[in-house]
Please model this.
Amino acid sequence: MNNIIFFGPPGAGKGTQAKLISESLNIAHLSTGDILRNKLLENDNLANELKEIMSAGNLVSDDILNSIVSTRLNKEVNKGFILDGYPRTLKQSDFLDKFLFATSNSINYIFNIQINFEILKHRILKRSTEEGREDDKIEVIETRYNEYLNSTQKVSDFYKDKYSDIYHEIDGSLQIQEITQKISQILKKSWKTANF
Ligand code: AMP
Model:
């Protein structure tokens, strides 16, 4: 089974890699950022509340995220999936672990895409001109990066300790194709080990 988590700071290229790998494995790509951005289009009270939180670069509440993810995962759990942008807090990782346990599933691969802040800033500002995302402004980037350092990195470190055998560090400063290649090699290598 291919149940995969991508970790990494905003702008590390998680979304790009998750999309490419999900297409090549033909599994669902669950980007919580994309799901939330789609919700914003509904323009109701919840959308307005989310917009305020997201455009400031803060994290949306765990309850909202856990509910979104469990609804989506219920559909994909037996087919394989990539989580991109979730879990971002220890409460979310706890919820995910319980959800997977209850559905007799587990995570098989974790990829942590690492990159330094200067390269990130440059990439995010480039993305802001290409995609026009509200939260890609220079003032917001620092808040998002700090949310990552204060919260998500702890979750990633927790998984690194707990599941060191399936946790893989990836150099995010490489070219997109090189990163995809490295991830694909890891996936292929462990399929081989599993087959022999
Ligand atoms: P992303 O596209 O993953 O950078 O997410 C964009 C924004 O959506 C984040 O800055 C948060 O405001 C919100 N968001 C996405 N995923 C989560 C999550 N797992 N927990 C809390 N907020 C999230």
Observations:
- The helical segments are 14-25, 32-40, 45-55, 62-76, 90-102, 117-131, 138-162, 176-195.
- The pocket of adenosine monophosphate is lined by residues 10, 32-33, 36, 53-54, 57-60, 65, 85-86, 88, 92, 135, 144 (CB under 6 Å).
- The mean pLDDT is 93.
